[in-house]
């Protein structure tokens, strides 16, 4: 029986190592073909969770031993971040979950799984909160591997890597509510390939309806959105007014803990 248990544990460890190392046996990663509206994806919400039973043992990849920091309480790191996307989408993470490149997740070599971290792009001060559920990147100069959605939010898709600051978040029953995204609503008015035209319309609508607005870049288009609006009743009332001029306008609901305003 002991030999059988030992063999089971060895198989599990082997699977974890294979999951971690196999990402470098693929060809170069690439962006997906069909991309959803990533601006509407909220940060991960730090909540108390039970550590994975099998994904938090020390392990070895490519002959290098890695220690899992099971009792860590404080961590700040600075270094390079990378991202991984389409070639891993739908495959299992080291945590045993299915990788979703459109979720706010990440991979780390040493943090216990799952963990939550705040990542700041030092080049533009943009920040995200992600849930760490995978191992990697197994590259000496990189400290964290971000999902496609998280990399998009940090504006680092084109560069591939970015210098970042990583801060561990220890969720508790008391502080998890601080990170709970609140619902807010926007009125999607129109999309224009001309940024100047979109800005002109946004300014006109802001003066007309005395409300905030923003421009959201989606490919070659600039989307004019009114908001944020704090409740659905106000959003519906404003939509009725806007549709008198822009008949194709519609309501967007977004979960966000960040203040959004027009650039």
UniProtKB/TrEMBL annotation:
A GO molecular function held by the record: peptidoglycan binding
As for membrane topology, the entry says: Lipid-anchor
Indicate the enzyme's highest-level EC class: lyase
Q: Cite a GO CC annotation.
A: plasma membrane
Q: Which family does it belong to?
A: Belongs to the RlpA family.
| Reported function | Lytic transglycosylase with a strong preference for naked glycan strands that lack stem peptides.
The name under which this protein is listed is Endolytic peptidoglycan transglycosylase RlpA
Q: Which organism is it from?
A: Moritella yayanosii
Q: Name the gene.
A: rlpA
């Amino acid at each position: 029986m002991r030999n059988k248990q030992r063999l089971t544990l060895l198989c599990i460890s082997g699977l974890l190592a294979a999951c971690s190392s196999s990402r470098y046996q693929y060809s170069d990663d690439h962006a997906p073909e069909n991309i959803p509206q990533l601006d509407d994806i909220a940060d991960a919400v730090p909540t108390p969770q039970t550590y994975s039973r099998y994904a938090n043992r020390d392990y070895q990849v490519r002959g290098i031993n890695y220690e899992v920091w099971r009792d860590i309480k404080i961590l700040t790191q600075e270094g390079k971040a990378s991202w991984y996307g389409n070639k891993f989408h739908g495959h299992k993470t080291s945590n045993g979950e299915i990788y979703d490149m459109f979720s706010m997740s990440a991979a780390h070599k040493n943090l216990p799984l799952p963990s939550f971290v705040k990542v700041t792009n030092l080049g533009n001060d943009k920040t995200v909160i992600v849930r760490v559920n995978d191992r990697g990147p197994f590259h000496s100069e990189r400290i964290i591997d971000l999902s496609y959605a998280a990399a998009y939010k940090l504006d680092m898709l084109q560069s591939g890597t970015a210098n970042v600051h990583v801060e561990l978040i220890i969720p508790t029953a008391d502080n998890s509510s601080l990170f709970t995204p609140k619902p807010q609503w926007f009125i999607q008015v129109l999309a224009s390939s001309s940024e100047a035209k979109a800005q002109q319309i946004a300014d006109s609508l802001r003066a007309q309806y005395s409300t905030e607005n923003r421009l959201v870049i989606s490919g070659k288009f600039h989307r004019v959105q009114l908001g944020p609006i704090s409740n659905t009743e106000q959003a519906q009332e404003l939509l009725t007014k806007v549709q008198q001029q822009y008949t194709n306008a519609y309501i967007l609901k977004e979960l966000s803990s960040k203040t959004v305003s027009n650039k």
